[in-house]
Structure formats: structure tokens, C-alpha cells
Amino acid sequence: MGAVIAVANQKGGVAKTTTVHTLAAALVEQGNRVLMVDLDPQACLTYENGINPDDLEATVHDLMLGRVKIADIVIDANGIALVPSSIDLAGSEIHLLTKTGREFVLGRALKPVISDYDYTFIDCAPSLGILTLNGLTAASHVLIPFQAETLSHRAVGQLLETIEDVKAYTNEDLEVLGAVATMFDARTNLGKRTLVEVSETHDIEVLPPPIPRSVKVAEAPERGRSVLTHARRSKSAEAYRQLAEEIVRRT
Fold this sequence. Notes:
Layout: E1 3-7, H1 16-29, E2 34-39, H2 44-48, H3 60-64, E3 75-77, E4 80-83, H4 89-96, H5 105-110, E5 119-124, H6 130-138, E6 141-147, H7 152-169, E7 175-182, H8 189-202, H9 215-219, H10 227-230, H11 235-250
Parallel strand pairs: 1-5, 1-6, 2-4, 2-5, 6-7
Antiparallel strand pairs: 3-4
Helix pairs in contact: 1-11, 7-8
């Protein structure tokens, strides 16, 4: 079975979705079979791949409610398999709160297809609610993107506490791959200091390389593509390729 990587951080604006999309694209470039799961009611990963959720008959919301099987909703997103999301997913969270075994719903739904892919990325919602718990419970690994700034400490620490709870109750085999510094500005002392402080404070490895801040990364989603296609020779694209290679070595 391939690696199932939950990409999580309850703090918004840390390039979590962009990291999922770009790492998936980088791994496909290397010849891997990759599935992306949009587990965020904001459906940013779905939009980032040029897909309008309003045009879809069924999404991950229907999967979580047991209305469809996963094979029925997987779509192609420029050569990457995608389980799309929609705002309806917010209703799934309310529905799941009353269900026994609610943390295991996504993992069970993924089971029939998980062996078809070398890597599955779960783009978790920016919260520590039941949807994120489903992502962490279904995963073999977790990757934590963070912006290299002062407030990163608190968010990373809170998430690591949740991960320990998940390991204790729903997924004892979950491994933390490490953290990824995004929107990194090597010219600032704050950025450099934050990399060291996050690692030392939380005893977590910050995976190389940090992803540099770039307007090219910000431009890519409006074109429905990753920065690997939009600006394939940019520093950010090359950094994500190197990060993908690092993840291959560790999984």
C-alpha cells in the first residue's frame, strides 16, 4: 500500500493546499500514481485544479455520508486523481458528530482504492474538527506546512497535541514526516530564526528545503495549474521538486 499523507495545520494561510497540489504534481512528474483528497469545505484544492464544485454531481461530502463509493467521484485533474470537495462538506461534519466510529469514515471509504496509488494526499481543513481527525486517522503520515513567522509556534504545537491524541485513540501507527516552511524569505532574520525555533521548541524536523515566497506560486491557482506547470523553472517549483524527493526517501 502506498503512503497516505495528511497535510494539516489548523492555522489558515500557510499554503497547505498549494503544498498538496504541488507535491502531487511533482510526484506525478517522477512517474508516481497520486490521489488528492480535498477534505476542506472551502474546496480550495478543487478550485485550484480548475474545477468548479457547483458543476459536480457528487463530492467528498457524499462519500462521507455513504451515498457514493469513492470510485464514483474520483476525477482527473491534469493527470492527478482528485476526490473533489464542496461547501456541502460542512454539513458532513455536523452529521458525523452523532455517529459511532466517526473518526474512521474517511479511512474506510478510501480503502477500496488506496492500493491503486503510490501516494495519497489528504488536504485537511484549517481546523482541528472531526474532518481533520478523519484525515489523520486515515493517514500513514502527516506533513505540517507552516509560515515562517512568530505565530507558527502555537499552531504547530496545538496540532502536535492533536496528533498525539490520534495516535493514542484512533491511529497508533501515524508518523509525523516533519514540518515544511512555506512562503519563506531567506533575507529576513525572523524567517531563519523561526525555522530553528519551530524545530527546537516542538522537537520536529523541518524538512529541506524551505519553499521561497514567490508571486508565481500565487498566480498558478487562478490558471488551474500548479507552479510546476505555470513557472516550471522558478525557485519555488524547484524547491517543491526537491521536497517531493525528500518525501520519497522518507516514506
